[in-house]
Design goal:
mainly alpha, about 70 residues, elongated, single chain
């Protein structure tokens, strides 16, 4: 018996759209926090890693959207 599960396109697109919105909002919040000095120095590494991950996710979502434009 196969464990291979296929997600319907509409559900996958909704997940990518939500991921795109969340990642872009997180990037904006991180940028605003750092500009205002709301982050301690020892937190900057973790915040930077989170921002980098969100940028990568946003890029994946943009690529997905461009490949599946209707």
């Amino acid at each position: 018996m196969s464990n291979d599960k296929t997600v319907p396109f509409d559900q996958a697109k909704a997940a990518f759209d939500a991921s795109f919105r969340v990642s872009r909002t997180t990037i904006s919040v991180i940028d605003a926090m750092t500009q205002r000095g709301a982050v301690k120095g020892e937190e900057l590494s973790a915040i930077g890693q989170l921002r980098d991950q969100c940028v990568q996710l946003a890029q994946l979502c943009e690529a997905f959207q461009s490949e599946h434009e209707e």
